[in-house]
Design goal:
Rossmann fold; 2 domains; seven-stranded parallel beta sheet; phosphatase activity; four-stranded parallel beta sheet; HAD-like_sf; single chain; hydrolase
C-alpha cells in the first residue's frame, strides 16, 4: 500500500474536500474533555469547505449527542449534524420486531429503545439479541460473558451489536465496548449484524445527511477523520472515502508520531490512510 501523507494541519489538504465525517471519541474528545485545537479546526473547515458530520459509534440516538458535546464545551458552530451507530441500530431493530429480544447492556443506553415497541425477555424466550455494551464497563471484562454468549450461540440467536468499537479511552482509562462481546459471539459461532463503523448502514445514513445539507458531494470529495484503524479507517476504505488517521488525541491508536511505526500498523491492519496527523488542527 502507498504511504500516507504525514501532516500537521488539516488546512494543507482541506481544498481537496467538500465535507468531513469526523469521529468523536479519540478525535474531538477523550470522554472527559475536548482535544486542544479541534474546535478551531472544525469551525474553519466548515467555513472554508463544507459540512462536518460527527460520525460516532455511540449506541444512542443522535438526538442526545449534541447535549453531551455541549457539556464538553464544543461549539455548535463546529459541526452540522451527528449520525450515530444508534441511529442505524434502531432501523435494524425495527426489522426484527415484533420478535422479543434479549438485552445485553447498561441502563445508560435506554434512550436507544425509546418509542420502539420491544418486548425484552429471558434468553431462552428471545428471537434475537441486542448488545449495547457490558453491564458494568467500570469493572467487567468481556470474557465474563462467554458462558451466556455460548448459550445464545447454541440457540442460534442473531445479535445486533449497537457499538462495533472494541475499546475506547475514557480520560486515560480503557473501557470495553459492545464490539468486544460481539467478537466473542462470532468466535462461538454466533451471527452478528452491526450498524456502526466500519459497516455500511451508518455511512448510508451519513451520506443522506450530507446530501441534504450540500447536495451532490461525491464520495471522492469526503474526508473521514478518526483514530480507529479497524473502524474509522477501514470503514472509509470500504466506502471509497479518503481517510485521515489521528494518532495523538488519546484515542485507541497505539502508535505514536513515528512515521515508520504508523505505516507499519496501517499495513498490518490492511487499511490505507490518505493522511496521518497527531491531532485534528487547522
Amino acid at each position: 500500500m502507498s504511504r500516507p501523507r504525514f501532516i500537521s494541519s488539516i488546512r494543507t489538504l482541506a481544498s481537496d474536500y467538500d465535507a468531513m465525517l469526523c469521529d468523536a471519541w479519540g478525535v474531538i474528545h477523550n470522554g472527559v474533555e475536548l482535544i486542544a485545537g479541534v474546535e478551531e479546526a472544525m469551525i474553519n473547515f466548515r467555513k472554508a469547505r463544507g459540512p462536518i458530520i460527527i460520525l460516532t459509534n455511540a449506541p444512542r440516538p443522535s438526538s442526545i449527542i449534541p447535549a453531551q458535546l455541549d457539556r464538553l464545551g464544543l461549539s455548535s458552530d463546529a459541526y452540522d449534524a451527528v449520525v450515530t451507530s444508534g441511529d442505524a441500530t434502531r432501523a435494524m431493530i425495527e426489522r426484527h420486531l415484533p420478535a422479543p429480544a434479549f438485552r445485553i447492556g447498561p441502563s445508560k443506553d435506554d434512550p436507544l429503545f425509546e418509542n420502539l415497541d420491544i418486548n425484552f425477555v429471558q434468553l431462552e424466550e428471545a428471537g434475537f439479541i441486542i448488545c449495547t455494551g457490558l453491564m458494568n464497563d467500570d469493572r467487567e471484562h468481556p470474557y465474563e460473558y462467554r458462558e451466556i454468549l455460548g448459550h445464545a450461540a447454541e440457540l442460534r440467536l442473531p445479535m445486533i451489536c449497537a457499538n462495533p468499537d472494541i475499546i475506547v479511552n475514557w480520560g486515560g482509562r480503557r473501557i470495553w465496548c459492545a464490539g468486544a462481546l460481539a467478537e466473542i459471539y462470532k468466535e462461538l459461532g454466533g451471527n452478528v449484524a452491526y450498524g456502526g463503523k466500519p459497516h455500511a448502514p451508518i455511512y448510508e445514513q451519513a451520506n443522506k445527511v450530507i446530501d441534504r445539507i450540500k447536495p451532490g458531494v461525491a464520495a471522492s470529495r469526503i474526508l473521514a477523520v478518526g483514530d480507529g484503524l479497524l473502524t474509522d479507517i477501514r470503514g472509509a476504505n470500504d466506502q471509497g472515502i479518503d481517510a485521515m488517521l489521528v494518532t495523538g488525541a488519546g484515542g485507541i491508536h497505539d502508535g505514536g508520531g513515528d512515521h515508520a511505526d504508523v505505516s507499519a500498523q496501517l499495513n498490518e491492519a490492511g487499511v490505507h490512510a490518505t493522511a496521518v496527523a497527531e491531532l485534528l488542527r487547522w
